[in-house]
Amino acid sequence: MVAHHVGIPGIPGGFVGVDVFFVISGYLITSILAAEAGRSGTVSLRGFYARRVRRLFPALVVMLIATCALGAVVLLPVFGQQPELGRSAVATALYVSNFHFWLASPGYFDPSAELMPLLHTWSLAVEEQFYIGWPPLVLGAAALARRGPWSLDALLKGIVAAVLVASLAWCVVQTGDSPTAAFYLLPARAWELATGAALALWMPAIARERPLAGALCSAAGILAVVAAVLLLHRDTAFPGIAATMPVFGTALVILGGSLAGRNPVQRVLSTGPMVWIGLVSYSWYLWHWPLLALTRAHELEVHDPARDAGVALVALLIAYASYRWVENPVRYGRPGPFARDASTLVAGAVASLAVCGVAAALIVRATDAANRPSLQALAEARADHSPLRELCHQDIPFEGLAPASACIVGSRDRAPRLVLWGDSHAEHLSPLMAAFARKEPSLPVLVRSFSRCPPIDGFTHDDAAVEAGCRAFNQAMLAEIAALRPQGLEGVVLAGRWLRAFGAPPLSGLRAGNANGLDHPAAAEGLARTVAELRGLGLKVVIVAPLPELPYDAPACLARRPSGHCDVPRQEALAQRAEVMRLLQAAAGGAPGVLVLDFFDAVCDEAACRAAKDGDIHYRDDHHLTAAKSRDLLPLARAALEQAAAPSRPR
């Protein structure tokens, strides 16, 4: 999992390490609880939870306080960075961080989640929530076994089987209906812990030496886990059915070990280095992600596997120190308040309150710092979206076009004369179109945009849901445009993130001399087909050329570095888009009525393309203009827009 988070290529499914952990945890904890209940006829809940506090809480509390302290230095008080860390620290201290991230993040695999230093604690919350309910169930089963006709073993097996089946069914359904909830919340994850619990209950009946069966089980299990790591990826519907691969694979490895303790797989897993990694794994898991997230935030989200591997090694050293001087002394030495179970629980509660206090202080400090005028201006730039965004910018799943009446700027008692059509790069031009319509109220404009969906006929995408939604949106747009043409529509403005759509090399590739042309040249053919269809309707077409894309999020970069360090050399920006510009001109075909409109010089001077100039911030992130800058483009665009909206035939 650490290698996956570092970004080492070839292991896209490394995130299944959590699923492996859930199975092992369910197996170990249920083995302990079942043995205690079978031996004494009851379970000490106070003793169980005190052991959990001594085992898990000291290292966790140290990590949380250290992360808040580092976040106060590394993260920004604006853009929600420090306040988000404070809120997530409170949620983690209370073991509800999975709910927090379910509500606060677009999804575990969303790029924004990589800057959340405590994102990884969602799995700890899921585990502890399971163990809030599981020990009382074991205790209740033990009480029933003393009084009723059923044995403790039968009752526990029945409970575990019911939880496993019901949770797995719910997981499959939720992964399709609400994948973020399925990923983060216990009801869709309980079956993974229950799988380990089932092993603990059923294995004793079959645990006798069977060398061949054990070797086969372990080999099949390790192959399943490795296959999950190699074959699953961020676009896989997960957890769902896909999670059965690492979960049942782990179960087979454990089963194989009980049948043949010295089979080849078990011998490898029992070697000194593997055992040592296992001992420090909890602390390594705790520390690696905060250090990676804080490093990436400080470096403005730039990924560097070599750098991140070094960070992971530093985290391993800290993990060893934590294991040696925090985990073990409390777990085994039981100093001071950890000497007795009752006082241990009180100490855990006090430690939770201490973390909440530190987190609250971070939030208050961030709120005060964010009031500085320079930071307020950056926060305003980050939030400077088009007023039309909420109603007229759409995303998957596509459920039909928004009402046209809400998306027309200019005189609404007339049919639109222009349509703006495209992806989020059309959305960030909608303030320009609104400014044009205010100057020319007799030339109303209909604004339409859809995330990740350029106006390309036959558009393809790695995510099937995005591709399906995009194609449906583009088909709906063509139908609407055809219907508007007899009502007075004269022109269509096409805007897209052409650098991404055509697969232009990133700036890092150009600087390293690794630019190898475009990855998706067929996209240009799709754009040419779109232009041809519009020309076939007798419409004029304006294709908006790509603006330079910055290597950093502009407001975040401007908050950390002098303005010049956030710019792109002009020649690099020109080189990045050179082939794309050639293809756009080819799509235009030099035909009358088709124009490529280029705003390049609006953000670039002779030396560089600027994130900001003379106090005006140009970008709200790394590639979208602020609404203010979009409106500033009107003098450059007005003539082209007037020409596109001009009647091409008598009315």
Reconstruct the topology from this structure.
Blueprint: H1 2-6, H2 17-40, H3 45-74, H4 81-93, H5 97-104, H6 122-147, H7 152-177, H8 179-184, H9 190-202, H10 211-231, H11 244-259, H12 264-269, H13 272-298, H14 305-333, H15 341-369, H16 373-382, H17 389-392, E1 393-394, E2 408-409, E3 418-422, H18 424-427, H19 430-439, E4 445-450, H20 464-484, E5 491-495, H21 498-501, H22 507-511, H23 522-536, E6 540-544, H24 554-560, E7 568-569, H25 570-588, E8 594-597, H26 600-603, E9 608-609, E10 612-613, E11 616-617, H27 627-632, H28 634-645
Parallel strand pairs: 1-4, 3-4, 3-5, 5-6, 6-8
Antiparallel strand pairs: 2-4, 7-9, 10-11
Helix pairs in contact: 2-6, 2-9, 2-11, 3-4, 3-13, 3-14, 3-15, 4-5, 4-15, 5-6, 6-7, 7-9, 9-11, 10-11, 13-14, 16-24, 19-28, 23-25
Description:
By secondary structure, this protein is mainly alpha-helical. It is 61% helix and 6% strand. The chain contains 28 helices and eleven strands. The chain has helices at residues 2-6, 17-40, 45-74, 81-93, 97-104, 122-147, 152-177, 179-184, 190-202, 211-231, 244-259, 264-269, 272-298, 305-333, 341-369, 373-382, 389-392, 424-427, 430-439, 464-484, 498-501, 507-511, 522-536, 554-560, 570-588, 600-603, 627-632, 634-645, and strands at 393-394, 408-409, 418-422, 445-450, 491-495, 540-544, 568-569, 594-597, 608-609, 612-613, 616-617. Strands 1, 2, 3, 4, 5, 6 and 8 form a seven-stranded mixed sheet that branches. Strands 7-9 form a two-stranded antiparallel ribbon. A two-stranded antiparallel sheet has the order 10-11. A hairpin with a 2-residue loop joins strand 10 (612-613) and strand 11 (616-617). Helix 3 runs antiparallel to helix 14 and helix 7 runs antiparallel to helix 9. The radius of gyration is 29 Å and the shape is elongated.
